[in-house]
Amino acid sequence: MMETISVLVVFFVLLFLGIYLYFTAQHTSIEETQDEFANTERTVLLAFVPSMPEIVCSKYESPDNCVDMLKLFAFKEKVMKEKSKYMPLFTGFKVVVRMVYPIQSDVECDAKMVNKMEWPDNCGVYTLYDEGKKTTTVVSTPLSLYLPSEDTYYIGKLEVYSTE
To answer: Which domain holds residue 81?
Structure first.
């Protein structure tokens, strides 16, 4: 009788240990899959945003991944007005266009700065969408920034941040 009870105790301990290890491995696998999915979403958004008709360069012979700097302001306002259209695309992300060359500045560009003579030298960051949440991972790609009023190209990068 005592041997049977001790065998059952050992059996159940081993059973529960096996179940615990199995679910721990499954949890880790699910987290890895979730990270891969989030990375894929960021990469797709990174490829899609520069080709959006709302911000793409209007010049016919413009290079790939070219963004019109003046259209960035109108697009930001359009996103705020038509949230239902853009929320499914941008929810969970922060999308930023950053000027890299010739000016590298962390000052946020707004519509008031465009009217100044120093623009675009007085700012360098165009936040297209931000939920105000804490950002975690970032992926970026270079792109060409076109200023139609001067017929000049600048070097920039598109950054897509994941938010919590």
So the answer is: 33-163
**Number of compact structural domains in the chain:** 1
Structure token digits, residue 52: 């959006």
Distances (CA, A) of 158 to 36, 76, 85, 134, 141: 20, 14, 21, 18, 5
Asked if residue 80 belongs to a domain, the reply is yes
Judge whether 22 lies within some domain.
Answer: no
| Any domain includes 147 | yes
Percent of the residues in the chain that have a pLDDT greater than 70, as a whole number: 95
101: left (phi over 0), alpha (psi -120 to 50) or beta: beta
pLDDT tens-place string over residues 77-125: 888 888 888 888 888 888 899 988 887 778 888 777 777 766 777 788 8
In a domain, residue 11? The reply is no
Surface-to-core class of residue 57, CB atoms within 10 Å of its CB (0-12 exposed, 13-18 middle, 19+ buried):
buried
CB 66 within 8 A of CB 56: yes
C-alpha dihedral sign at 97, 98, 102, 106:
positive
